[in-house]
Design goal:
Blueprint: E1 11-12, H1 14-19, H2 21-25, E2 31-37, E3 58-62, H3 63-66, E4 68-69, E5 74-75, H4 78-87, E6 95-100, H5 109-118, E7 124-127, H6 130-136, E8 163-164, H7 166-172, E9 179-181, H8 185-189, E10 212-213, H9 229-237, E11 247-250, H10 256-267, E12 273-276, H11 279-283
Parallel strand pairs: 1-7, 2-3, 2-6, 6-7, 8-12, 9-10, 9-11, 11-12
Antiparallel strand pairs: 4-5
Helix pairs in contact: 5-10
Length: about 300
Amino acid sequence: MSDTEYARDVLVSADWLEEHLDDFRSDDPDYRLVEVNSPESPDTDFPSRYDQGHVPGAIGLQWDEDLSDRTQRDILTKGDFEALAGSRGIAPDSTVVFYGDGWIPNWFALFAYWEFKYYGHEDARVLDGGKDYWVNNDYPLTDEVPEFPEVEYRARGPFEGIRAYRDDVEMILDTGVPLVDVRSPEEFSGEVIAPPGLRETAQRGGHIPGAENVPVKENLDEDGTFKDRDDLESLYADHGVDGDESVVTYCRVGERSSIAWFALTELLGYDDVRNYDGSWTEWGSTVRTPIETGEPD
């Protein structure tokens, strides 16, 4: 596990994962390893896609094809989630470790983690530093695709306490509940609608009124691993978030904000944190929703 004392033991180190590779390659569903790719991951100097090389024993999932309802632009229904997990050999009591690629380590892997938590999976964890750290430090890769026996999966959730909807955000605009916008300062100000090279999924630029801008990379050290607990506490305290209040995180499509949700909920142990997965794609495209523009304070 990670050497840093966080609120919950949800991060695993690359060394820990390497020591347990035999467990993850076993047909026994006690352990499952999941690499989550996105359709928008940039080119890198190392194998960034699952089929170009992955951690031995890892299952490959694609964010838009496997973890999303592309017609509704939503996460999977409960039934579809259960079918997906069971078809990949993931049982309700499996220890599932997620990791992923992207210009932000574990970019969509943390969204998968959040979705599994939404449906009540208890033992979910994350490879600290993601695929970047694994590859950059010469841990083993393979192109062998595992095939695990299907199992029955019955989800305990959904647990709505970790999810925010547009109506929730509209209701809290006048209450002072902190909103954490994890996008870049350029997106926050309205200068751009999406990061360079990614599709513009909203009609307008800007941010939700009253939101604090905490760019997601500020949660991470230079090697892509999470900052220690003291640094994370200081980061969010500087933006008025100290765990004594409800918090809502958001970004463009709900994936970067799941990283902030993870840091606040799982690493700092704050009790009432919700991820607004509709995020700016929904808010910035809805007629008459209020927006603000301009640089963060």
